[in-house]
């Protein structure tokens, strides 16, 4: 009996899934086994982003897979969640790429873009031929994107973008950046162009545009097989047609972020499952004090506790997926999922490390790599504290932001 079948025997998630959902999971599991796992430890060690995998993700249908048309799969939320789960069981960096490309950039274009923007970009992005990045976060802002300093000023039939962004995934390898900026008048102190305030708008900026500079952030001890960047926008000029016509205000990027957070709920549990698998396998193969450590009461208690949290996390992810399919998923519910999934995944990973002993800190097992990656996942797209405040506001009606 394999490790996976032991987990499935106790926790029969398959009974709750539809045939097409199981098919997507099978495809993603095979992709991870064949394209990610054989090279991920070396890529992570050498901080190497394996760009040649991106078209294969497109060929598999994983990019923008919940979008209808334009070469996208039009799959359901649970199918997407299962793909995110399997990819992150390989490495968080690859689930992050699918999330940035599909949920953030393609999702924004599909929801807020013009017909020309959709036709020009979505088919190529779905195929993995065009790579995008989502330039929202700023150095001084962090969890407060409402304090955005990047500006867009109209100059004739063009827009001029000025500002800085930080922790922008894929920016140095992307073909197009979706840049979020506040619209101002003729100068920064002028009255805003948009009625009702300095409206935030999204602009599709080819990364080869003069004045756009993306620099990979060095010295990362997490997410080492993926790329995150500092971005400088120095008098970047784009035509009026670069603006997403239907994205006005912070609600637009926040809607995209909620789609990405939904994928994290499933993905973090994938990292947890990979570590639980490793702990179970090691518990039956490693012998000390006259027998396998899996026969010891303390080890079995740890495994049981990890499985319980994994099961609860997966059931919550499935519940959120069914809500999303009905169009009933709320931002507060997404915050429940993101907060719980990453927090409990880290708990599972840390407990798995204790079962693996000294070998658990080596690349022979994926545990330390997942632990380091999950520290990034815990921070991006809403820290624990921010999601706690979202839930506090939902419960009390009072904002503590």
From TrEMBL:
It holds the Pfam family Acyl-CoA_dh_N. Its cofactor is FAD. Residues 249-395 form the Acyl-CoA dehydrogenase/oxidase C-terminal domain. The keyword Transit peptide applies. Residues 133-236 form the Acyl-CoA oxidase/dehydrogenase middle domain. SUPFAM superfamilies: Acyl-CoA dehydrogenase C-terminal domain-like, Acyl-CoA dehydrogenase NM domain-like. Its EC number is 1.3.8.6. It catalyses: glutaryl-CoA + oxidized [electron-transfer flavoprotein] + 2 H(+) = (2E)-butenoyl-CoA + reduced [electron-transfer flavoprotein] + CO2. GO terms for molecular function: fatty-acyl-CoA binding; flavin adenine dinucleotide binding; glutaryl-CoA dehydrogenase activity. It is an enzyme of class 1 (oxidoreductase). Pathway: Amino-acid metabolism; tryptophan metabolism; Amino-acid metabolism; lysine degradation. Keywords: FAD, Flavoprotein, Oxidoreductase, Transit peptide. The keyword Transit peptide applies. Residues 20-129 form the Acyl-CoA dehydrogenase/oxidase N-terminal domain. It comes from the Bacteria. One of its GO terms (biological process) is fatty-acyl-CoA biosynthetic process. InterPro entries: Acyl-CoA_DH_CS (IPR006089), Acyl-CoA_Oxase/DH_mid-dom (IPR006091), Acyl-CoA_Oxase/DH_mid-dom_sf (IPR046373), AcylCo_DH-like_C (IPR036250), AcylCo_DH/oxidase_C (IPR009075), AcylCoA_DH/ox_N (IPR013786), AcylCoA_DH/ox_N_sf (IPR037069), AcylCoA_DH/oxidase_NM_dom_sf (IPR009100). Belongs to the acyl-CoA dehydrogenase family. This is glutaryl-CoA dehydrogenase (ETF). It comes from Agromyces protaetiae.
């Amino acid at each position: 009996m394999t490790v996976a079948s032991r987990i499935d025997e106790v926790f029969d998630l398959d009974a709750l899934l539809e045939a097409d959902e199981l098919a997507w999971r099978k495809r993603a599991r095979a992709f991870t086994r064949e394209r990610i796992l054989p090279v991920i430890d070396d890529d992570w060690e050498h901080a190497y982003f394996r760009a040649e995998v991106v078209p294969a993700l497109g060929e598999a249908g994983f990019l923008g897979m919940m979008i209808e048309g334009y070469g996208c799969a039009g799959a359901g939320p649970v199918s997407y969640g299962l793909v995110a789960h399997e990819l992150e069981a390989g490495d968080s960096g690859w689930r992050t790429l699918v999330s940035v490309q599909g949920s953030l950039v393609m999702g924004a274009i599909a929801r807020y873009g013009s017909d020309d923007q959709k036709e020009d970009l979505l088919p190529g992005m779905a195929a993995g031929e065009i790579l995008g990045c989502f330039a929202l976060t700023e150095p001084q802002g962090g969890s407060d994107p409402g304090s955005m300093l990047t500006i867009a000023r109209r100059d004739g039939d063009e827009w001029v973008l000025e500002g800085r962004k930080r922790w922008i995934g894929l920016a140095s390898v992307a073909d197009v950046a979706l840049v979020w900026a506040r619209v101002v008048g003729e100068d920064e102190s002028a009255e805003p162009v948009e009625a009702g305030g300095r409206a935030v708008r999204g602009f599709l900026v080819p990364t080869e545009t003069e004045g756009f500079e993306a620099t990979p952030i060095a010295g990362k001890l997490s997410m080492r097989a993926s790329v995150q960047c500092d971005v400088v926008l120095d008098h970047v000029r784009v035509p009026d047609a670069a603006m997403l016509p239907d994205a006005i205000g912070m609600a637009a990027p926040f809607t995209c972020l909620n789609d990405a957070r939904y994928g994290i709920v499933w993905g973090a549990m994938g990292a947890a499952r990979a570590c639980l698998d490793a702990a179970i396998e090691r518990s039956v193969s490693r012998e000390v004090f006259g027998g396998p450590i899996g026969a010891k009461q303390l080890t079995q208690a740890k495994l049981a506790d990890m499985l319980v949290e994994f099961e609860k996390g997966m059931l919550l992810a499935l519940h959120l997926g069914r809500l999303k399919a009905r169009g009933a998923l709320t931002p507060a519910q997404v915050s429940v999922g993101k907060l719980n999934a990453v927090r409990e995944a880290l708990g599972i990973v840390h407990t798995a490390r204790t079962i693996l002993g000294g070998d658990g800190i080596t690349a022979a097992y994926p545990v330390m790599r997942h632990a380091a990656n999950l520290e990034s996942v815990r921070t991006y797209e809403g820290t624990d504290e921010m999601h706690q405040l979202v839930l506090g506001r939902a419960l009390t009606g009072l904002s503590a932001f």
